[in-house]
Amino acid sequence: MTEPLAPTAPQQPPHVAGSSHLHRGTLGVADIVFFVVAAAAPLTVMAGVAPLAILFGGIGAPVAYLGVGVLLVLFAVGFTAMTPYIRNAGAFYSYIARGLGRPSGLGAALLAVFSYNALQIGMFGAFGFFSATTVNDLLGVDLPWPAYAFAGIAVVWFLGFRSVNLGARVLAVLLIAETAILLLLAVAVLVKGGASGLAFDSFAPSHVLTSGMSGPLGLAVAAFIGFEATAIYREEARDPDRTVPRATYLAVGFLGLFYAFITWVIVQAFGSAQAVGVAAENPAEMFFTAMTRYVGDWATDLQRVLIVTSLLAALLAFHNAITRYVYALSAEHVFPAALGRVHPRHGSPWAAGIAQSVLAVIVVAVFAVIGVDPYNEFFLWVNTPGVVGILVLQALAAFAVVAFFRRNPAARGEGRLRTLITPAAAGILLAAATVLVCKRLDLFTGAGPAVNWMLVALTPAVFLVGVALAVRLRRARPDVYAKLGTTDVD
């Protein structure tokens, strides 16, 4: 089940009529960082999740984001050490296949497609909910949330269909806007000295080393979801052996420091003695209240609009990740070759984009007909299995790095620190983080144990389906099985 890959000649992507390659040499470091950070939706994470981290973990919550950032930097050390040996757009799939064997790799591939679809499609519920609320509050136009969700699907499809350059530019504008509004709040709080003077007791051991920190740690882990996208864009990156590692470190470093800083700022906005009480009273309004108090009503209205655009940016980033996974799997004939078609003019995986958008329309329509709550049920319940799945993939990828370098002595020139010690530590810590998230899944779903365990069970179920498919391919289609994880996009 976990046999290493035998040396094979690199397989080239299939030549489909019109075009078979994504746009080469299009994305620089900054472009890829925009895709990764946009997928994390910093404004939505801070305004929607950071108050919960403060509520459950107290004023030491900022340290949770720093801690998870350090953990993912450890992961990135091994991840980037292996990058020059993975010339494939399959990211986690390719890393795990090369390190832990083809069956595990295909299990990871299906889990990645499932997880990113769950993250993206579930987010349309949040997009519809916040769009409907914001438009109604600001303009007095009352439309049902599915109308906005379907409009969002159309916009995301169009931007994904056009060149990746256009998507990068749109994400750059949206990401800068949502980052700027948070920095505006931060500057206002710092200039006015917070509620009762600036203090750094959030970083004191007495507020960090508490049993309540398990909640913020679980929430913080989920806040970094999607940073593996640096490897997904290998085929479209300029000088990928340098661009992908740099983008990975920059994205993780920025998110860790930015999350910790903004969470500390919101504690200062209400004061260390009052912040937890404010979060307990109405966590959903904590950031909006601070924005009104320190900047003004106009900034609060702008923040509501930017949360909607923040979600749109994340939706586009996840859409691009999904289509490139499908593209990679189609290149190796796991998925139908037709799904790997690339637009001859735009260089986008347009067939995969249509398939993903149709799936989103179907799922949104079903939940709309059922009449579920778009945020508390559709978004949280559909999104959560995606979070668990990506965490499992990160842990497997870390262990895959160790296995790859142990089985390939010629590649050990990177040194034991990068190829063994750091990835092994990251894998153990990521596995522990996954367990922590599963134990505290009620923080993500608000549901009971039965629903939570059902959502958790989807991850191993999908992974095992992929493993079973690989075993079947090994017997029935050995030529396809031999190509798994070997496509050379360079």
Automatic annotation (TrEMBL):
Residue segments, region Disordered: 1-20
One Gene Ontology cellular component: membrane
Membrane topology: Multi-pass membrane protein
Residue stretches making up the Amino acid permease/ SLC12A domain: 32-476
Family annotation (PANTHER family): AMINO ACID PERMEASE (PTHR42770:SF16), AMINO ACID TRANSPORTER-RELATED (PTHR42770)
A GO biological process held by the record: transmembrane transport
Protein's name according to its UniProt entry: APC family permease
Alphabetical list of InterPro entries matching this protein: AA-permease/SLC12A_dom, APC_superfamily
Keyword Membrane: yes
Membrane spanning residue stretches: 32-57, 63-86, 106-131, 143-161, 170-191, 203-227, 247-267, 305-327, 348-372, 378-405, 417-438, 450-471
Record has Cytoplasm as a keyword: no
Subcellular location: Membrane
Keyword annotations from UniProtKB, A to Z: Membrane, Transmembrane, Transmembrane helix
Biological source species: Streptomyces phyllanthi
